[in-house]
Design brief:
The complex is a heterodimer. Chain A is 74% helix and 2% strand. Chain A has 7 helices and 2 strands; from the N terminus they run αααααββαα. Chain A has helices at residues 2-18, 26-60, 62-65, 82-92, 103-134, 148-167, 176-222, and strands at residues 141-142, 145-146. In chain B, helix 4 (73-89) runs parallel beside helix 10. In chain B, strands 3-2-1-4-5-6 form a 6-stranded parallel sheet, with helices on both faces. The chains are: A mainly alpha, B alpha/beta.
Chain lengths: 223, 295
């Protein structure tokens, strides 16, 4: 019974959203507003029960949430967690103009932590790692011969990276051989955007197919 | 004749977008009704993940991260289920985690569809475990790279982590033989590569939505050992699994993505047709304008 009700609710809301494809209407507006409201409430509840309670309240005052939040049975108060609690409260001072400057301290801490943590990782994986990934052998040998496919792939990668970088190099006028490489870079970028667009189409059709399957399941319960 | 040609271009230019929506809907619905299925060939980027799991010795530890929500289930869920089925078939130990708050319900669906349905003899805590969601995004991954049990003190049900057999020899992520991230955004595959795979030298495999796939190809093959890109990637993995393990042939829950690739293919053909029609209309219009300028 509960599953059927869930199925009907989901199907009707799906149809309300799809009705926008014909034209804007009150059913679509209702479903849209419901979605926004439910999402906001959902994320607030998730935030309280998966972050605030286990990561803050359960650390400072475990006995208050024992049996409600997952934590070790022998959990003891960890009073140093009062420091992030204070920072969290400082963030809320933005709501009071007279003391809103205090929120900058909390913000500075968050930005400083994120920048420090991410910097080395991005440098290793996205900068050095990507340069390393581009350095592929241009002559690839296999058992008793050369791998033509791998060679073409390496050459396309190398030429594509260099030409795309040249396109974004604005300290020299794009004329002559430099301009030709830049124009080739545009072509590589366009092919990339085209592939990304194709993938996006595939993603959207996959989601549409998923919804259609759901509607099919709903119709099967009726007929 | 010229007048007729002009009329065709005008008609093409004036096609109501609702007609296109209707045709796309039909392109999806009709193959779904008639169960249109095309043969799928596994590409090297997908085969690499399959081969890696195939080569792992029984008992190896695989972490499967659910970094997506209900909005991308049609793409991500078949990937997660195919990989979990393969890992359990190979007697690997499966650790289910989530860095997305919406991940655990997807893991629960996998438990129902794969573990309870096809592997009822697998024991919770010995063969597989659900550690649930933890807040912290990449900070969480960074932390469990050094000390997993500091963050996961219990499983998703609140049972102390050290009471499970399969957690006794796990200290951090470097104890894992493979990380598989099924993701659809931030935090996701990129963060697993940056904060676990690269610094910990742990193999990372991924399955992502088609929208995200082009952004992750540059990590393949050195930082990502393989990538399932969208529904096509999931279908390719399912095809590889059925080829290697024929007992899954004909089972509906082992070919979810393969079944959805029928409507996908027809819808793509319709879209390609409209792209061609759009181009004909565009160039026809340009030619018409050039002629009218001359005259």
């Amino acid at each position: 019974m509960a599953h059927t009700a869930e199925l009907w609710l989901g199907a009707l809301l799906t149809l309300m959203i799809f009705s926008f494809l014909y034209k804007d209407n009150p059913f679509y507006k209702f479903a849209e507003h419901l979605f926004v409201g439910v999402s906001a409430a959902y994320w607030m509840v998730i935030g309280i029960w998966t972050t605030l309670m286990p990561n803050l309240v359960a650390r400072i005052w475990p006995s208050a949430v024992r049996g409600i939040v997952n934590m070790p049975e022998d959990a003891r108060p960890q009073y140093h967690f009062i420091i992030p609690a204070v920072f969290g409260i400082l963030m809320l001072t933005r709501l009071v103009e007279r003391v809103s400057w205090l929120s900058r301290w909390a913000m500075a801490f968050v930005i400083g932590y994120a920048a420090g943590t991410n910097f080395t990782r991005y440098l290793q994986s996205d900068f050095v790692g990507q340069i390393y990934n581009t350095m592929l052998p241009l002559i690839v040998k296999t058992n008793g011969g050369i791998a033509i496919g791998a060679i073409i792939s390496s050459v396309v990668l190398l030429v594509g990276v260099i030409c795309a970088l040249i396109y974004f190099f604005f300290s020299k006028e794009h004329t002559g051989a430099f301009g030709a490489a830049s124009r080739l870079g545009i072509w590589f970028l366009m092919v990339t955007f085209g592939a990304a667009f194709g993938y996006t189409v595939m993603a959207r059709i996959s989601l549409l197919t998923g919804r259609m399957q759901y509607l099919g399941e709903w119709l099967a319960t009726i007929f | 004749m010229a007048k007729g040609k002009r009329d065709v271009i005008d008609v093409l230019k004036a096609i109501d977008r609702r007609i296109i929506f209707l045709l796309i809907a039909l392109a999806v619905i009709i193959p779904l009704i008639f169960h249109l299925v095309f043969s799928i060939r596994t590409s090297p980027i997908v085969q690499a993940i399959f081969d890696k799991i195939e080569a792992l010795p029984p008992g190896s530890k695989v972490i499967l991260s659910f970094d997506y929500g209900p909005s991308t289930v049609p793409e991500n869920q078949p990937m997660a289920e195919a990989i979990a089925r393969h890992a359990l078939q190979k007697d690997l130990k499966l650790y289910l985690v989530a860095v997305w708050a919406t991940g655990p319900p997807q893991a629960e669906a996998l438990i129902t569809n794969v573990i309870n349905a096809d592997f009822p003899n697998k024991v919770y805590g010995c063969d597989w475990i659900h550690l649930g969601y933890k807040a912290g995004n990449q900070g969480l991954i960074n932390a469990i790279l050094l000390d997993l049990k500091a963050m996961y003190t219990t499983d998703i049900h609140g049972t102390p982590i050290n009471s499970f057999e399969m957690m006794k020899d796990v200290h951090n992520l470097t104890d894992m033989s493979l990380i598989v991230c099924i993701g659809s955004g931030f935090p996701g595959v990129r963060e697993w590569v940056q904060f676990a795979g690269d610094p910990g030298d742990i193999p990372v495999a991924a399955g992502v939505t088609a929208v995200e796939a082009p952004l992750l190809y540059p990590y393949y093959p050195r930082q990502l050992l393989g990538l399932l890109g969208g529904l096509q990637g999931a279908a390719e993995y399912e095809a590889a699994l059925v080829t290697q393990y024929p007992q899954y042939q004909g089972k509906a829950n082992c070919a979810q993505a393969v079944q959805l690739m029928g409507p996908q293919t027809v819808a793509h053909l319709v879209i390609i047709a409209f792209v061609i029609i759009g181009n004909i209309a565009f160039f026809g219009e340009r030619r018409k304008q050039a002629r009218s300028k001359k005259s």
